[in-house]
Amino acid sequence: MTLTNTKTLYEQDFALWIKDTVNKLKLGDFSQVDLENLIEEVDSLGKRDRRSLESRLITLFEHALKRRYVNLPDCYRGWEVTLNRTQQKLNQILNDSPSLRNFLQDILLDCYQKALENMEIEYDNEFPNIYPFTEKIDPLLNSKFWTD
Predict the structure, then answer these.
(1) Conformational region of residue 28, where left means phi above 0, alpha means psi within -120 to 50, and beta covers everything else
(2) Residue whose C-alpha is closest to residue 116's, from 53, 70, 49
């Protein structure tokens, strides 16, 4: 399959393109690998993980804010389940890609601001404009930091 045909395969049937590319890589047939699209896909994997970390961190802060500042005891259990599940998913991503821990630290305050904006739209409560939680990653991912 030529590079032109491979690009067409990439555009027409992504799953088949993956199978074909993996087979070529396993066989060492590197000259026939669609490098342009392979590079794009590998790059997108890293972006996907960073987007996932950001999204999950925002969710973590949203639920932590609700749990700490919204007086709806009937909702606490559900919020805590979401907090626990989100911590598990964040840990899973960081276990697979430990180097993203620095990225998580870098986006911490920005994610809090996004969560704060969302909660201010959803609730009439007063939420702190200044970040109220620990800035250490381990407690955020492994404890009930919202109760401190």
Answers:
(1) left
(2) 70
- Residues in CB range of 69: below 8 A, 6 or more apart: 125, 126, 127, 128
At 42, the amino acid letter reads V
Cα 130 from Cα 138, distance rounded (Å): 20
C-alpha span between 64 and 24 (Å, rounded): 47
Q: Is 98 helix (H, G, I), strand (E, B) or coil?
A: coil
**Residue 130 CB neighbour total at 10 angstroms:** 7
Residues 23-80: tens digit of each pLDDT: 999 999 999 999 888 998 888 887 999 999 999 999 999 999 999 999 999 999 999 9
**Residue appearing with tokens 């620095």:** 102
What is the C-alpha to C-alpha distance for residues 144 and 3, in angstroms, rounded to an integer?
A: 53
CA distances from 106 to 13, 54, 109 (A): 37, 10, 8
User: Which residue has 């949203």 as its token pair?
Assistant: 62
Structure tokens at 42: 């590998």
